[in-house]
Amino acid sequence: MASRQQSRPATAVAARYGPVALVTGASDGIGRACAERLAAAGFALVLVARRQAELDSLADRLRARHGIVCHVLAADLGTSAGISATCEAAASHDIGLFVAAAGFGTAGPFLANDIETELAMIDVNCRAVVALTHALAAQMRGRAGRRSAIVLLSSLVGFQGVPRAANYAATKGFIQVLAEGLRLELAGDGIDVLAVAPGPVKSGFAARAGMTMGLADTPDAVARGIVASLGHAGTVRPGWLAKGLEFALMPLPRRGRTLILQQVMAGMTR
Ligand SMILES: NC(=O)c1ccc[n+]([C@@H]2O[C@H](COP(=O)([O-])OP(=O)(O)OC[C@H]3O[C@@H](n4cnc5c(N)ncnc54)[C@H](OP(=O)(O)O)[C@@H]3O)[C@@H](O)[C@H]2O)c1
Could you tell me the pTM of the whole model? Predict the structure, then answer.
């Protein structure tokens, strides 16, 4: 976890990983907050999500406020075409930082959920992240002597099974394990891999998942935690709530955490 003393100012992050950051899921929530922080730090940006209008208005705002270059790409990362379009867009820029924030969750009894949505979630949360990480890491490896970074969004729910969000939690466990492995594997290529495991965050996520959220961290707290941790942490749990939940849950055995989260999810799902 990043400590205050270790954390790097945002402008130093831009100097280390610039000139260009690619952010998926930039039309809302955590991805949008990351885009805002990175623009303020001086990164040029490539912003990806499905909703063109949201991306365009964010890009206009960031160009006006920070004088940065900002490209947008409307792409559905649940499809091979959307993944290919994103890889093509990435190939024409010197990307030093990739933030994979596109994703969504489902909640409620597994057997009541639409199986096509469950499978689409695996496509967006896992398949697209693996494909883009593969393409971006290969591209970053060629950045002659300069460091790069990849930020993957796992979750607090990814550290154990979670009844009523079993498949979503499994996609996040996949990402956490992927990031932990790649962190060591890609270190020699000058690529810093960071797993980000937030607790509940107030964004578009809960409405899309059909959940209610009480206490929650803000997307900007997550973005701030990411920027502060890049380059020296393997996993960050950004925000006060995520840290509190880590303190309360992580000492428990895995089965105990699952039982507690069963109660929590029962209260958060319809
Ligand atoms: N919010 C939480 O409580 C929480 C906690 C832990 C981890 N996370 C993780 O953090 C990440 C970001 O979540 P968030 O809270 O920022 O959610 P959000 O506000 O709903 O934003 C999700 C973003 O992903 C994009 N997206 C979704 N499906 C897509 C697709 N098929 N193709 C391209 N882009 C797609 C959305 O854009 P479009 O709709 O425009 O495509 C949006 O920009 C997710 O991976 C989530 O699992 C969230």
Answer: 0.96
Q: Write the residue with the smallest CA distance to atom 17 of ligand 1.
A: 205
| 168 flagged as catalytic | yes
Tokens of 233: 């942490």
Q: What is the second-level CATH architecture of the domain 10-268?
A: 3-Layer(aba) Sandwich (3.40)
For the chain, 270 residues long, give each residue's pLDDT as a single digit of tens.
Answer: 444 445 667 789 999 999 999 999 999 999 999 999 999 999 999 999 999 999 999 999 999 999 999 999 999 999 999 999 999 999 999 999 999 999 999 999 999 999 999 999 999 999 999 999 999 999 999 998 899 999 999 999 999 999 999 999 999 999 999 999 999 999 999 999 999 999 999 999 999 999 999 899 999 999 999 999 999 999 999 999 999 999 999 999 999 999 999 999 999 986
Instruction: Tell me the domain boundaries of the chain.
Output: 10-268
Q: Is 104 in the pocket of ligand 1 (CB under 6 A)?
A: yes
Q: Whose CA is closest to 72, among 91, 87, 51, 103? A: 51
Q: State in Å: Cα 204 to ligand 1 middle.
A: 7
Side by side, the strands of the sheet bearing 44-49 are: 70-74, 44-49, 20-24, 95-100, 148-153, 191-196, 235-236
